[in-house]
């Protein structure tokens, strides 16, 4: 585990510990508590580990918990599946996302173009947008005009007013993007590209700064997303995310018209 991963694991465990109701954890009621949530010694006891060892873990010391210990902590702290996966990766277990790809393979761009009226784009492991099709450029024209250094999905969500207007519920949608981003880059928080992006966003967006400090994580799930386009009105799109087998450092994001809506007709008008 890198020093950055140890610090993030320590901060994350503290943040989750403070959110657990002692009664829900099976502890007796009563007794004054200076801070909300569980005490360190309670987490250690419920997880079957030593109090001193767990304290060291929350202090970011150079120790590596086993898979079994991570599983026990996840149960004690009532972690969601995404949170459990996140701490597993921070602790050095499981797959770590591949690094950013160098450029866009031509065959991936051809796949984007073949999707016709379905807006689609490609991001790297650090969420830099490296490819898109005509439909996505019509949905969000800024993708083609923004400086390359700013062509990062998370940056655009929090820093571009046009994206704020485009998203159906910016407060909820931006939070979802943030928690998914953190879940993906957790083991790579020390990477220069991630460090620089987070630092810029903390300065540019109080909303991002507060969300980042919460240490919340979530995994991606396909589902419906609403957009408000200035030319064709409301679009109800299904959001899909795929990883090319021969380009594991890339993610292909595709929006298709939701069944039972008039979005398909609106996309046809949008793409002309």
Question: In words, what does this structure look like?
Answer:
The protein is elongated, with a radius of gyration of 21 Å. A 5-stranded antiparallel beta sheet has the order 2-1-5-4-3. It contains 14 helices and 5 strands. A hairpin with a 4-residue loop joins strand 1 and strand 2. With 272 residues, it is of the alpha+beta class.
| Beta strand % | 5-15%
Compute the gyration radius: what is it? 21 Å
Which secondary-structure class do the elements indicate? alpha+beta
Distance between the termini: 51 Å
Residue share in helices? 40-55%
What characterizes the major β-sheet? 5 strands, antiparallel
* Rounded average pLDDT: 90
Which stretches of 5+ consecutive residues score pLDDT under 50? 96-102
Order of helices and strands: HHHHHHEEHHHHHHHEEEH
DSSP summary: helix tally: 14
Strand adjacency order, main sheet: 2-1-5-4-3
Summarize the structure.
With about 270 residues, this protein is of the alpha+beta class. It has 14 helices and five strands.
How are the elements arranged and paired?
Layout: H1 3-17, H2 40-47, H3 51-58, H4 67-76, H5 81-90, H6 106-114, E1 120-124, E2 129-132, H7 134-139, H8 142-145, H9 153-159, H10 161-166, H11 170-185, H12 192-204, H13 206-213, E3 223-229, E4 233-242, E5 250-257, H14 263-271
Antiparallel strand pairs: 1-2, 1-5, 3-4, 4-5
């Amino acid at each position: 585990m890198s020093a950055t991963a140890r610090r993030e694991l320590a901060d994350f465990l503290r943040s989750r510990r403070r959110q657990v109701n002692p009664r829900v954890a099976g502890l007796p009621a009563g007794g004054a508590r200076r801070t909300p949530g569980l005490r360190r010694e309670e987490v250690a006891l419920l997880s079957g580990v030593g109090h001193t060892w767990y304290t060291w873990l929350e202090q970011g010391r150079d120790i590596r918990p086993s898979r079994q210990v991570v599983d026990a902590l996840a149960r004690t702290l009532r972690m969601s599946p995404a949170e459990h996966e996140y701490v597993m990766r921070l602790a050095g277990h499981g797959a770590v996302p591949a690094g950013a790809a160098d450029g866009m393979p031509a065959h991936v761009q051809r796949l984007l173009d073949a999707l016709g009226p379905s807006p689609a784009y490609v991001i790297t492991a650090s969420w830099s947008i490296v490819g898109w099709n005509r439909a996505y450029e019509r949905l969000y024209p800024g993708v083609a005009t923004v400086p390359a250094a700013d062509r990062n999905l998370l940056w655009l969500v929090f820093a571009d007013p046009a994206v704020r207007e485009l998203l159906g519920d910016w407060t909820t949608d931006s939070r979802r993007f943030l928690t998914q981003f953190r879940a993906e880059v957790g083991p790579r928080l020390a990477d220069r590209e991630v460090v620089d992006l987070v630092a810029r966003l903390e300065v540019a967006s109080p909303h991002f700064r507060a969300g980042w400090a919460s240490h919340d994580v979530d995994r991606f799930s396909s589902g419906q997303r609403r957009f408000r386009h200035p030319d064709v009105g409301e679009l109800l799109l299904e959001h899909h995310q795929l990883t090319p087998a021969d380009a594991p450092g890339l993610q292909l994001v595709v929006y298709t018209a939701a069944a039972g809506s008039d979005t398909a007709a609106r996309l046809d008008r949008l793409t002309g």
